[in-house]
Specification:
The protein has helices at 67-78, 101-117, 123-133, 177-196, 202-224, 232-245, 253-259, 261-272, 294-306, 319-325, and strands at residues 2-20, 26-46, 51-55, 84-90, 145-149, 154-157, 165-169, 277-280, 287-291, 311-315. It has 328 residues and is α+β, with helices and mostly antiparallel strands. The protein folds into 2 domains: 2-159, Ribosomal Protein S5, domain 2; 165-320, 2-Layer Sandwich (Alpha-Beta Plaits).
Length: 328
Amino acid sequence: MTVAVRSFAKINIGLEIGPRRTDGFHGLRTVYQTIAVHDRLRVNVARGTGIEIRSNDPSVPCDESNTCWRMAERVMKALKLRDRVVIDVEKSLPVQGGLGGASSNAVATLLALERALGKQLPAAERLRLAAEVGSDLPLFLIGGTVLGVGRGEEVYPLEDLPALDCVIVTPDVGISTPQAFADWDNKQEAGGRKQEAGKLTAAAGSDKLVGSSRAVCAWLSGSSTGVPAKSSGDRAEALLLDLVHAGIENDFESVVFPLHPELRRVKRALEGAGAGYASLSGSGSTVYGLFRSREVAQKAAKRLSADGMAAVATKTLTRREYWKRLWD
């Protein structure tokens, strides 16, 4: 049986990096938001054994390093089944662009396999498998607006933000997330030596995460308790102003932008084209802008594309829309 499924992207609305943990990962605080741009997957289960990955994008690995392969292996083992699984990945999302494409593909594989096999794993088992495969996967088992903590794999559904118009730009720049974390550590250690003549304390990093959490809470509370807007455009504009005033930022920008100034230029171009809020997503290289209306977003995408940037206009997805639109 073959099942087709959409695999949606995410953006990060703010990302705070805490100290390195004993397991080697960093503590994080971020708000994930699913958006409408997506890949398409077709998952086929037939007689036989083994897992095969196919893709229209030659940069997608088709071996055991592929997140879809790793997820399929775990799902079949959890269900105690031995069948042949073939996964066709039609890529539209950039590889290593900070939009969670590989993570979303893996979760789409899990969901499609369940449907193809007529079986469903318990919610806790789904989350466990997702967290085993990667830090960004569990958010795609929730969708909409999601708080991510821990290394990003501990997720909590938030009250959905209203649908916002969005423009994404993904320059042809390769960003290594492990290297971005290493650059962050080096930057923090250098700052710590200046301030404390030796090292940056874990307590300081923890205080930073607490401050980030308070900023996110202030933004979410402020955006939901203000004066009723006269229109959806007014509502979006007020929410974006709240977001800016809360000072929510992506920490990766401080280490990625100096090495790749073209990404800073993209952010400024989005702001110049009318974005109420613009940010790097994840460690990049995608930069996105949130807009007060579809008309302004589409004009911005057209303007940036004319300037040689691969700009795409899209929208954020609420949780309900995310689950509704998964299946072809």
